[in-house]
Each structure stands twice: as C-alpha cells, then as structure tokens.
Amino acid sequence: EVQLVESGGGLVQPGGSLTLSCAASGFTFSNYAMSWVRQAPGKGLEWVSTFSGSGTSTYYADSVQGRFTVSRDNSKNTLFLQMNSLRAEDSAVYYCARERSHAPTDAFEIWGQGTMVTVSS
Amino acid sequence: DIQMTQSPSSLSASVGDRVTITCRASQGISNYLAWYQQKPGKVPKPLIYAASSLQSGVPSRFSGSGSGTDFTLTISSLQPEDVATYYCQKYNSVPLTFGGGTKVEIK
User: Fold this and answer.
1) Which residues of chain B are within 8 Å of residue A95 when distances are taken between CB atoms?
2) Range with the lowest mean pLDDT among A95-104, B33-42, B82-91?
3) DSSP-derived pairing of the beta strands A58-60 and A92-99
4) How confident is the model over A67-118, as pLDDT tens digits?
5) Cis bond leading into A104, ω under 30°?
6) With an 8 Å Cβ cutoff, is A44 touching chain B?
7) Does the distance separating the beta carbons of A104 and B94 come in below 8 Å?
8) Which of A26, B32, B38, B78 has the fewest C-beta atoms under 10 angstroms from its C-beta?
9) Residues A82, A19: Cα–Cα separation, whole Å
C-alpha cells in the first residue's frame, strides 16, 4: 500500500525550530518529487516546498524562503522539513505529498494525513 | 507569480444538479492544472490532473476542461458525498499555487 506518514508536529514558541518527517512506503521513493503543503486552520491550501525526485533541486514558497529547509534521505524513504524562526502565521497542518513523477513540478498524487504545527507563546 | 482565482467561492445546489466551478490563471499555464477535493476534516483527494485526466478511482461524474488561462471542474450530477471544498492548482512552474477554494453544499 502506498503510504505517507508525517510526524514531528507540536507546539513551539515564536522564533523556535521544529523538524517534520514524512515516512514513505509502498513505492520507490527516489523516483518521485516530494512536497510539503500546509493549511492554516479554516484556510486554504498553500504549497510550501518541493524536493525533486532526481538530482538535488529544492524549491520554496516566498513565505518560508530562508527559514525552512527541505531534505530527503532516499535510503530511509523519508522527507524532512526543518523549520526555523517560526512565526504565528506558520501555524497549520503540514501535509507531505508525492507528485506524479520525478519532475519538480507535477500534480500531487498521494497525500499524508498531516501533522499539526502550532506556533504560540 | 501566477495567481489562481476560483469562482464562485461557495455554491449550494440540489442533488442531481450539474455543478461547474471555474479556475482562472493570471497567465497561461497550458494544461498544467490539477483539481483536488477536500471533505470537512479530511485530507485533500486528487481528482484531476493535466486539466482533464481523471485520477484513478474518481467517479466519472467528475470532469475537467480548459487550457491556457481558463479551466472548469464539472460535477455532472451532484451527490450528497460530493459536499466538500474543491481546489485548483497550477503546476507548470514553481510556485505551485492553489486557488482559494470553492465550497460546495447541498441545497
């Protein structure tokens, strides 16, 4: 079964850091681009970051550029999102998503269940 | 950056009605357009990619069309289980922008 399972969410103070993980199973992880998408409470979907399936290309939304870092460990079938200098507006459910191909820009085909990040003092 | 605008933001229709949601890109994106369905409290579900290709397992009452800047998602006969918010997304280039969503309810 193709599956994505996120972990690492929680409550963090403004200015703090958090690392999210996304464990993949049921497919050849290295063949696909992987992304993070977030959804603030009661709001719409916002693309956050993508790591291409081939090479080492990474892409970020302007809202997180310079604060968030996406990485992947293909040997462990895991995608990561290191989040630094967190702000209240970063509070959201963070979804891991697999794209349809290795290309850095493709439709999302598989979504994880999400992990909640709350930034508050 | 290219902006994605959905309309309407919400709609209410009767079971069996034909429902159409539009998505407009501020610049041409060819057919690099996807649609997702998100039921209340649930994970987004992929419906359509490449503007008109149905994802595996999606009921045939859903269809997509368009190219360039104007796209539509059509539900040919609205069912109670279709109550959800629908999002379009462009993926021709980063940023992979989503539309603001269209909430569909049963009248």
Assistant:
1) 43-44
2) A95-104
3) unpaired
4) 999 999 999 999 999 999 999 999 999 999 999 988 879 999 999 999 999 9
5) no
6) yes
7) yes
8) A26
9) 4
